């Protein structure tokens, strides 16, 4: 098809003899004459995978009026994303007819609208773009005039506009390489050059009550900490975003400059703020600063404290001038929490969100009002909102069952709940236009360039991105909706409500363009301000029929995954268990509420609307919170000693050290595992001071000698282990039970035997007839044994030499003297003594 289209186009040009000057779009934006013979090729083929990307920076005017500019000016940049040079580039602006119905408008938002009603000539872009190169582009085309040189606007309404770039890569045919589409609203026609005195047509439509929600949110970036620790962020992108030229800085500055307190625009605007974002900014501005976690796991000081302080002050000043609604804390997905069995946490997200926002900004947000993610909720979630004093809910008109009359706005009672509730309905068409066709997530955008880039060669739209043109489709859809006659039945007594998605990526320039367009609609009497807070305070009109809430399937498909919620449920149980160990009113440290409230708020960040449609990111965020809570639990434990315990007695006490890394006093139970070598007496619950240590004397009984290891751990009063178990090494020099029993038995036996021998000697009992191992004859009564002839008489000068005892040892036997017979007179100088009876040595 590409060669055929090129041949047909060239043939038409040759037959028509179209050789002349063409306006030129160059770097300076000055129209120049084209060289003779330059073709004006019209390509209507579908976009391909071309090598050129078109990024538009500005389109003026954003809304066409009789008093506005008479030409359309487009500026941007062309980038060669391929590996071949691109030349013969041409560009033009073309449009479709006014969109007649809402269905046609939705087709245009999806990129399926017709844009070939008026197709002016292409404008050459001089030069060649090398691979990776860029060139600036500026195109100027009249709004009215001939169809071949202008957009030829002839009626009011909303048109689809296409900026079309054709060109030829080297060795390739000329084709469409890039295109950007958007809506162009025309409230009134500028003068026609052919009829300068013609009276412009009066604008159509009527004044409709109007209110606008203005979301101020960002992806959660804070990691849970406890008092005494510096705030910790996952990155430092907020430092750039809070700056005056950053996304969040520009968003608040545009509101402060355009929606001044007391103005009609401020009366129609209600600012919806994420309390977690405000709390993060307040912590960043503290004199001590904050820390940022680096990719390698280390931390570094943050750089956005001053910018966060200025931004927070400006936001507080804007908030005090009009309506403010508090989003759930961290913009949590309440439906995902309720479905995951954590409805109590969903209630806390709503109630704590209001409290945090009101306290920091010193305001009173709309009481009892809740705006859930995507403006939809199921019945259990609505019941949870009712518990959080949520009598009023901001819902999309797609979030209620429609009857014969298709509602796009209004205030209606909700059916099916135990507690009376009503809903303020928002217009789904306006939300779709603000979100863009792909509902771009704030984490998938290029914050450095502020643009959302489509694939090369594709027809893209800036809607939903962070660039300055991201609100152009929203402006067009709002002009379309307000151009219709107001339908009181469809609105059910409520205003037309513009509600961008919570993760709205508009920057300062885009928000300023939207606010300016709303002001134009107010001046044109298309809309009149109707305060959202006033509509919520008034409630539904009398006699309004109740509608059942509905939860669309596509909303469930974008929901935070159940795996992330399941991980959070386990982490929530760990926090509750840890809190059971905290001692209230301990007199030292901080209160348990100051420690555990930030941890519970940290559970809401992984279920933020920023992670809808990104299951991997949501699961990773929930695991990060779980790891942080595990780190805090691990700070309460038994310290492992550097050397073994040396025990010398069986009942020696053991000194162990408990440590507490939390800034609150904790009461814990110490547990030492029983083993074959050590028995431990029961240990009373122990109080450990905040950020301190305590030594505990443990009564232990050693039952064996040697070296062995036991495990010591700390448990909460609810019974779960806190920190990791510590290994206690024990070195025992105490005898074991068996050794002690054997030693004692041997000692008793020795005493018994010695006593028996002494007793027999005292009694003089004879032995068994054995002396020195030889049998002796027992002499008859009254006779004396004969003295051996070879045995000399004992005398003082004659002592028997050493002899063997019973055991054969060569030592004198102390009882050997009993083997000798007594002599008649052992003393020569004394009188003779009669001989006594013979004595036989006892055994």
Question: Main traits of this protein?
Answer:
28% helix; 5-stranded parallel beta sheet; 5-stranded mixed beta sheet; 4 domains; transmembrane; elongated; 32 strands; disordered N terminus; TIM Barrel; alpha/beta; 843 residues
What is the secondary structure topology, with strand pairs?
Elements: H1 2-16, E1 52-60, E2 71-80, E3 86-95, H2 102-109, E4 123-125, E5 134-142, E6 157-169, E7 175-186, E8 208-216, E9 222-223, E10 232-233, H3 237-241, H4 247-258, H5 264-268, E11 269-273, H6 275-284, E12 291-293, E13 299-301, H7 305-319, E14 323-326, H8 334-339, H9 343-361, E15 369-370, H10 379-387, E16 392-396, E17 410-414, E18 421-426, H11 428-435, E19 459-460, H12 472-483, H13 488-491, E20 496-498, H14 508-523, E21 527-529, H15 532-538, H16 553-557, H17 562-580, H18 592-602, H19 615-634, E22 637-638, E23 645-647, E24 653-659, E25 666-672, E26 678-680, E27 686-688, E28 693-702, E29 706-715, E30 726-732, H20 737-763, E31 770-771, E32 774-775
Parallel strand pairs: 7-19, 8-11, 8-20, 8-21, 10-12, 11-14, 15-16, 16-18, 23-30
Antiparallel strand pairs: 1-2, 2-5, 3-4, 3-6, 6-7, 9-10, 12-13, 17-18, 22-24, 24-28, 25-27, 25-29, 26-28, 29-30, 31-32
Helix pairs in contact: 4-7, 4-14, 6-7, 6-9, 9-10, 11-12, 12-14, 17-19
Organism: Pseudonocardia aurantiaca
Protein name: DUF6049 family protein
Biased composition (Pro residues): 828-843
Could you give a short description of this structure?
Residues 440-472, 764-843 are annotated as: Disordered. The protein has 843 residues and is an alpha/beta fold.
């Amino acid at each position: 098809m590409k060669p055929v289209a090129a041949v047909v186009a060239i043939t038409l040009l040759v037959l028509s003899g179209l050789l002349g000057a063409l306006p030129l779009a160059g770097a300076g934006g000055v129209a120049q004459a084209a060289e003779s013979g330059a073709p004006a090729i019209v390509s209507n083929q579908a976009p391909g995978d071309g090598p050129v990307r078109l990024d538009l920076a500005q389109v003026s005017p954003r809304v066409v009026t009789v008093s506005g500019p008479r030409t359309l000016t487009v500026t941007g940049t062309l980038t060669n994303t391929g590996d071949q040079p691109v030349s013969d580039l041409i560009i033009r602006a073309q449009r479709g007819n006014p969109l007649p119905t809402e269905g046609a408008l939705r087709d245009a938002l999806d990129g399926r609208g017709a844009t070939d009603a008026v197709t002016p000539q292409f404008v050459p872009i001089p030069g060649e773009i090398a691979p990776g190169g860029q060139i600036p582009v500026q195109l100027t085309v009249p709004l009215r005039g001939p169809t071949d040189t202008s957009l030829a606007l002839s009626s009011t309404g909303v048109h689809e506009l296409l900026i079309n770039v054709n060109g030829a890569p080297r060795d390739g045919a000329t084709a469409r390489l890039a295109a950007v589409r958007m809506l162009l609203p025309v409230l009134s026609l500028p003068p026609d050059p052919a009829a300068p005195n013609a009276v412009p047509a009066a604008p159509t439509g009527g004044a409709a009550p109007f209110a606008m929600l203005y979301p101020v949110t960002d992806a959660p970036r804070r990691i849970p900490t406890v008092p005494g620790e510096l705030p910790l962020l996952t990155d430092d992108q907020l430092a750039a975003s809070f700056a005056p030229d950053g996304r969040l800085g520009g968003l608040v500055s545009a509101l402060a400059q355009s929606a001044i307190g007391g103005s009609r625009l401020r009366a129609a605007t209600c600012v919806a703020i994420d309390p977690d974002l405000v709390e993060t900014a307040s912590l960043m501005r503290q004199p001590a600063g904050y820390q940022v976690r680096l990719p390698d796991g280390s931390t570094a000081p943050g750089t956005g404290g001053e910018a966060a302080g200025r931004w927070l002050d400006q936001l507080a000043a804007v908030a005090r001038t009009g309506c403010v609604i508090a989003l759930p804390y961290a913009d949590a997905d309440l439906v995902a929490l309720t479905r995951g069995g954590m409805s109590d946490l969903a209630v806390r997200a709503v109630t704590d969100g209001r409290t945090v926002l009101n306290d920091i900004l010193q305001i009173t947000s709309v009481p009892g009002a809740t705006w859930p993610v995507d403006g939809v909720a199921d019945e259990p979630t609505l019941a949870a909102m009712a518990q959080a004093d949520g009598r009023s809910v901001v819902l999309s008109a797609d979030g209620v069952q429609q009857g014969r009359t298709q509602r796009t706005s209004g205030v209606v009672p909700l059916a099916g709940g135990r507690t009376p509730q009503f809903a303020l309905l928002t217009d789904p068409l306006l939300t779709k236009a603000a979100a863009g066709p792909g509902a771009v997530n704030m984490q998938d955008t290029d914050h450095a360039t502020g643009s959302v880039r489509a694939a090369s060669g594709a027809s893209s739209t800036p809607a939903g991105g962070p660039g300055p043109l991201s609100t152009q489709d929203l402006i067009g859809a709002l002009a379309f909706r307000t151009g219709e006659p107001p339908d009181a039945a469809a609105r059910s007594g409520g205003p037309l409500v513009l509600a961008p998605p919570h993760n709205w990526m508009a920057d300062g320039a885009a928000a300023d363009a939207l606010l300016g367009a709303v002001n134009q609609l107010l001046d044109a009497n298309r809309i009149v301000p109707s305060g959202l807070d006033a509509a919520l305070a008034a409630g539904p009109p009398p006699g309004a029929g109740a509608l059942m809430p509905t939860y669309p399937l596509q909303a469930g498909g974008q929901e935070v995954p159940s795996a992330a919620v399941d991980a959070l449920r386990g982490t929530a149980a760990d926090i509750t268990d840890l809190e059971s160990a905290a001692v209230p009113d301990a007199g030292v440290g901080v209160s348990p509420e100051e420690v555990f409230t930030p941890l519970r708020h940290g559970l809401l960040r992984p279920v933020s609307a920023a992670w809808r449609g990104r299951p991997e990111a949501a699961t990773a965020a929930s695991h990060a919170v779980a790891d942080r809570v595990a780190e805090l639990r691990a700070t309460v434990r038994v310290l492992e000693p550097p050397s073994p315990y040396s025990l010398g007695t069986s009942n020696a006490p053991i000194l162990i050290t408990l440590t507490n890394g939390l800034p609150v006093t904790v009461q814990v139970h110490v547990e030492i595992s029983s083993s074959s070598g050590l028995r431990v007496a029961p240990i009373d619950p122990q109080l450990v001071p905040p950020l301190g240590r305590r030594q505990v004397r443990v009564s232990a009984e050693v039952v064996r000698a040697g070296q062995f290891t036991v495990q010591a751990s700390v448990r909460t009063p609810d019974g779960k282990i806190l920190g990791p178990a510590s290994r206690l090494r024990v070195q025992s020099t105490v005898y074991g039970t068996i050794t002690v029993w054997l030693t004692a038995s041997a000692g008793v036996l020795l005493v018994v035997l010695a006593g028996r021998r002494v007793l027999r000697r005292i009694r003089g009992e004879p032995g068994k007839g054995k002396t020195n191992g030889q049998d002796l004859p027992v002499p008859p009564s009254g006779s004396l044994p004969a003295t051996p002839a070879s045995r000399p008489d004992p005398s003082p000068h004659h002592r028997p030499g050493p002899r063997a005892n019973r055991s054969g040892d060569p030592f004198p036997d102390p009882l050997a003297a009993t083997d000798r017979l007594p002599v008649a007179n052992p003393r020569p100088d004394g009188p003779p003594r009669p001989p006594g009876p013979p004595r036989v040595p006892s055994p």
